Amino acid sequence: SSELTQDPAVSVALGQTVRITCQGDSLRNFYASWYQQKPGQAPILVLYDKNKRPSGVPDRFSGSNSGDTASLTISGAQAEDEANYFCNSRDSSRGHLEEFGGGTKLTVL
Amino acid sequence: QLQLQQSGPGLVKPSETLSLTCTVSDGSISSSYYYWAWIRQPPGKGLEWIGNIYYTGATSYHTSLRSRVTISADTLKNQFFLRLSSVTAADTAVYFCARHFPGYTSSYFDYWGQGTLVTVSS
């Protein structure tokens, strides 16, 4: 089981704002990265470091951190944002280096 | 643009060894900034980091898989490899290769292979 906890499912009305969270002790010392995955496809990096977006990722995606929780916010969600979202962080405390959250299925209504 | 192309069998028998190759193009695995990783995803489940390799040959592995996994690389061919021994049905998953930036305050996987579904079955 993952030491990064995500809500299994979240929904948002089209055009509204949604926040997806990721909680874990490692996030007190390490910024999360976030990935979008659509069915049958490889994950795509959408946020990394404190709040950086790779080229091509819309600016409606943003990130924040507070204590042991990292958040991915989508401002003005679009139909194409419907996907699974995974967070990732580094955790040296359990002997392995990288871990992922269990994922959040985002539904755009 | 960097591309990662995976190859390898999609069916492996129980107790045998899973072997996959990731070929990198339009970039070099000998870059000093990046590691090269394998990640897997059981059907309908989340992502699990397996391990990674630096071009020097240094490797790191997930604790739970360390006894069965080997990641290696051929810098001349710009390829890196995954071998997972003594597989069981629990190893059935989509396997991804990815480029990994292991920063001091943030790490991320910015380029991914297309994924290979590996089914363990007799």
Textual characterization of the structure:
The complex is a heterodimer of chains A (109) and B (122). Helix content of chain A is 0%, strand content 43%. With 109 residues, chain A is mostly beta strands. In chain A, the strands form two sheets. In chain A, strands 1, 3, 4, 7, 8 and 9 form a six-stranded mixed sheet that branches. Chain A is globular. The termini of chain A are far apart. Chain B has 122 residues and is mostly beta strands. In chain B, 0% of the residues lie in helices and 52% in strands. Chain B has no helices and eleven strands. In chain B, the strands form two sheets. In chain B, strands 2, 4, 5, 6, 9, 10 and 11 form a seven-stranded mixed sheet that branches. The N and C termini of chain B lie far apart (39 Å). The interface between A and B is medium-sized, with 29 and 27 residues.
In summary, what is this structure?
Chain A has 109 residues and is mainly β. Chain A has strands at 9-12, 18-23, 33-37, 44-47, 61-66, 69-74, 83-90, 98-100, 104-108. Chain B has no helices and 11 strands.
Defining key terms:
heterodimer, A: about 110 residues, mainly beta, 6-stranded mixed β-sheet, 3-stranded antiparallel β-sheet, B: about 120 residues, 7-stranded mixed β-sheet, 4-stranded antiparallel β-sheet, about 50% strand
> What are the low-pLDDT stretches of chain B, counting only 5+ consecutive residues below 50?
none
Quick one: how many beta strands of chain A? 9
Distance between the termini of chain B: 39 Å
Q: What Rg of chain A do the Cα atoms give?
A: 13 Å
Annotation field: number of helices of chain A: 0
**Low-pLDDT runs of chain A:** none
Largest sheet of chain B: 7 strands, mixed
Provide a count of the helices of chain B. 0
Annotation, overall tally of beta strands of chain B: 11
Estimated helix fraction of chain A: under 10%
Most extensive interface between two protein chains, with residue counts: A-B, 29 and 27 residues
Mean pLDDT score of chain A: 93
Terminal CA distance of chain A: 30 Å
Order of helices and strands of chain A: EEEEEEEEE
Mean model confidence by pLDDT of chain B: 95
Strand content of chain A: 35-45%
Q: Please state the overall shape of chain B, judged from the principal axes of the Cα atoms.
A: globular
Structural class based on helices, strands and sheet pairing of chain A:
mainly beta
The computed structural class of chain B is mainly beta
**Oligomer status:** heterodimer
